[in-house]
Specification:
By secondary structure, the chain is mainly α. Among the domains are: 43 residues; 38 residues. It is 74% helix and 0% strand. Helix 1 packs antiparallel against helix 2 and helix 5 packs antiparallel against helix 6. It is rod-shaped.
């Protein structure tokens, strides 16, 4: 039984008890309790709010924070393990200039390709 179902059952029991055993001594207690339960039951439940995307901020602080922490850890790990690009050695640069020196644009493309960026031609 869900919390809402329990509250609804308690509300119904209180209303029945209030109607069948009415007295001045317990009248205000029944009325206050019934009003509080009715007010709580009129509030949308968490699942309804989440489905509508309007769940209040505490969830962001408590539930979603863990997901963000996991994502940040994953991204930091990916950055640490990313292949570090190194500059061309003098010999590599000389070889590219010797091969593509008369075509500066192609030289740029080949240099980018050597660094793992751009497209090779």
């Amino acid at each position: 039984m869900t919390d809402r179902e329990v509250m609804k059952q308690a509300w119904n029991a209180l209303e029945l008890a209030h109607r069948t055993s009415y007295s001045e001594n317990n009248s205000s207690f029944f009325a206050e309790t019934i009003t509080a339960l009715r007010a709580q039951l009129e509030q949308p439940d968490r699942q309804t709010l989440q489905a509508a995307g309007t769940h209040p901020a505490p969830c962001a602080r408590h539930c979603e924070t863990k997901a963000y922490e996991i994502e940040i850890r994953s991204l930091k790990s990916a950055l640490r393990t990313a292949v570090q690009r190194k500059p061309l050695t003098h010999e590599q640069a000389k070889a590219l200039v010797a091969k593509y020196g008369d075509d500066p644009l192609n030289l740029v493309f080949q240099t980018e390709a050597a660094h793992g960026i751009g497209e090779t031609t």
